[in-house]
Amino acid sequence: ERITQTVEITKHVVDIEEKGVKLRLTIVDTPGFGDAVNNTECWKPVADYIDQQFEQYFRDESGLNRKNIQDNRVHCCIYFISPFGHGLRPLDVEFMKALHQRVNIVPVLAKADTLTPAEVERMKNKIREEIDHYGIRIYQFPECDSDEDEEFKLQDQALK
């Protein structure tokens, strides 16, 4: 029997408190993404989930009682790219093209510690070229303020 495609969407909620600031962080995981033999439109459940969260938030904001609204929108997609191969797979390109209008995408080279520094740099450059070539918009870190200290500016530049 053929195994059907299973892109499950699981949510993990974590309450974080740092320096008196409370934050509820929701991690949305998609195990099974890209594992099927036929991955045609396998990103559809993820895109639909993101759209549903935005619609729910809009409905809540448009309602009369807006005191206790929970913001379950997806604000960022950390997209892990396989370190094995020669850049982006067609599935990666299609997924990011389908979602870059909906959510900030941060591409991350998965298992980068299994590569040499030269291989990591080569892979990152190849992935950046492909992202530019396909017109995929990814999250760009904002410029830091001019009054920040030099150490913070160097940290900011390293992250970019």
UniProtKB/TrEMBL annotation:
> What PROSITE patterns does this protein map onto?
G_SEPTIN
Q: Which molecular-function annotation in GO is an example for this chain? A: GTP binding
**Origin: domain of life:** Eukaryota
What SUPFAM superfamilies is this protein classified in?
P-loop containing nucleoside triphosphate hydrolases (SSF52540)
**Where is the Septin-type G domain positioned along the sequence?**
1-160
- InterPro entries in the cross-refs: G_SEPTIN_dom, P-loop_NTPase
User: What Pfam families does its record include?
Assistant: Septin
**PANTHER family the UniProt entry points to:** SEPTIN (PTHR18884)
Name it: SEPT4 protein
Traced from the root, the source organism's taxonomic lineage reads: Eukaryota, Metazoa, Chordata, Craniata, Vertebrata
